[in-house]
Structure formats: structure tokens, C-alpha cells
Amino acid sequence: MNKFAAHAPSDAAKGMRALASGWFGEVSDMWPGQAMSLRVDEELFRGKSDFQDVLVFRNAAYGNVLVLDGVIQATERDEFSYQEMMTHLALCSTKSAPKRVLVVGGGDGGVLREVTRHSSVERAEMAEIDGMVPEMAKKYLPYMARGFEDPRAEVMICDGIDYVTKAEADSYDAIIVDSSDPIGPASVLFEEKFFRQIYRVLKPGGVLCSQAECAWLHLDLIVDLAKMCKEIFVNGSVQYGYTSIPTYPSGQIGFMLCCKPDEDGSTVDFTKPKRYPTPVEGSDLKPMRYYNAQVHAAAFVLPEFAREALEPHLVRGKE
């Protein structure tokens, strides 16, 4: 499934070359023949972590922009659509309000911020392999990084796969895999053995939400992922939803959502949200700007070309 793993860049050189003319260009083998470009009004940081090339710059239209290995990860202007949908499509669908949640990846803190929006959550863990990413987020994307300040948050700089593998079975109400594209350090987060470990550590009735690429660009990869999840989440539910976000390739990004069957054999129908996030009393989080119950349900309405390819491999919940 990870046919792009071999294309992992050693640095962001392709995109960086555009800086000479005052523009950053997102050039990648994962979307040949096209590139997203943003003008660089001010370069704020450029460096290499132990795992990837990191760039942060300021753009007049999108605010501060975080780039990893030449690929835009987040901008201040549009990050909320991704963070809110990735988090709440999962956490608002569980049969009972989630108490223990794990975020794998997500070093910018955006998903963790949205997890803490749920007052039911007692423990929000994050396992991020690259310690430079949270530090850059705290400095340059402070509202995204707000979740790091929540007393319920436990942030571990470690290998997320190793963290999940060592976790006790039936531990989590929800796991959110906020990975970058399946190249470089994130490629292993799309592999079957990792998903099988996730299934093991989810509680009965627990849910997974994993970044699952864009149907306009990588439908074959999404189909393979859906097939794999259907095999792993036996008698569970598997659905694909998506959101719009201007600075991601083709303006869309998708999520694979899976539910481990409950002890009574019931599963989750992700298309029907059961609750709305209710922040803890005194929270200073801003109101959500993208997610609501209507857009939740609409996220699973697929255009015909995607529905035709994916529907044989998706499983609707049995509540």
C-alpha cells in the first residue's frame, strides 16, 4: 500500500528552491504535475530535526505556515477544518462519551486541542516521534498548540508504533492517527501491523480515525486502506469521510474511520453524530468554525467516482 514510501525526500529542497523568487512551491511525487504555491513574506525558521526537514514561514493570506519535508502541514488560516473534522467525526460518534483518547502523531497540537474540547475526556495522550514539531508549534502556531497546556494532556516524544505496541489491550475509547503523507517517517503509520495493534488496544466499541489522503489523487491507496481495515475490524464498521481545506493537495483530505465491535456485537454508524463537543468549564478555546452535525453527516456522502470504488469495502455500523 505504501507505494510512495520510496519517494521520501531527504529534505525539502524541491520546494525550497522557490524561496529564491519569494515563493514556496509544494512539489512532490505524490501529486505529479501540480504544486501549491504560497508567497513567503517572512521566513521564520528553517532546520532539520532527527527525522525531517522543518520550515515555518509567514504568508499574508494564510498566516504562519508549517512545512515538513516540503509538504504543507498547517496554516493559521485553514487548520481548523482538518483538526475539527479529524477529531469530532470520531469522538462525536462513539456510543458513550469518550474518556481516554490517544493521538498518534499530530505534533502541531491541533488535534490534541480539539480532543480537549470534550469535557468527558479524562486522559488525552499524544505520542509524537519528532520533538521539534511541538516546539515549533508552540512558538509559531500558539493557538494550535493550546492543547499542550491542558492538564489532561500527556505528551510523549516517542515512536508512536512502539507506544501502541506496548499499550495494554482494550485501553482506549478512541485513537486518532494524525499522520503526514505515507512517505518518510509517516510511512509505517499506514501499514497493516500497526492497524492490528490499534485494534488490539481499542476498547470494545472503540473507534479509530486515521488520515486517509485525497480521493482526487490517491483513490487506489484509499481503496487498499479500506480493504485492509475491513479485514482487521471484522464485524466492525469502516467508513471514509472527508473535509475541504484550501492548502492541501486538490483542496481535500480524507479520513478512514473504523469501529471495533462492542461486546454485544453493535458498532458505530459514523454518519450519525451522537453528541456535540462541550468544553470544560472555564475553557478559553474559541468556538468551532467548521464542524457541526450537518457537516458531520455530509462528510460521508461521496461523489460517484469515489463511492463506486470504495463502497464494496466500507461497512455501515450496526447499532
TrEMBL record:
Q: List its EC numbers.
A: 2.5.1.16
| Biological processes per GO annotation | alkaloid metabolic process; response to jasmonic acid; spermidine biosynthetic process
UniProt domain PABS: residue ranges:
21-260
**Matching InterPro entries, A to Z?**
PABS, PABS_CS, SAM-dependent_MTases_sf, Spermi_synthase, Spermidine_synt_N, Spermidine_synt_N_sf
**Pathway it acts in?**
Alkaloid biosynthesis; nicotine biosynthesis; Amine and polyamine biosynthesis; spermidine biosynthesis; spermidine from putrescine: step 1/1
What enzyme category does the UniProt record give? transferase
Keywords tagged on the record: Alkaloid metabolism, Polyamine biosynthesis, Transferase
Q: Name one GO cellular component term.
A: cytosol
Name the domain of life. Eukaryota
Name the Gene Ontology molecular function terms of this record. Answer: spermidine synthase activity
Gene3D superfamilies linked to this entry: Spermidine synthase, tetramerisation domain, Vaccinia Virus protein VP39
Active site, renumbered: D178
- Reactions catalysed according to its record: S-adenosyl 3-(methylsulfanyl)propylamine + putrescine = S-methyl-5'-thioadenosine + spermidine + H(+)
UniProt lists the family membership as follows: Belongs to the spermidine/spermine synthase family.
Q: What is this protein called?
A: spermidine synthase
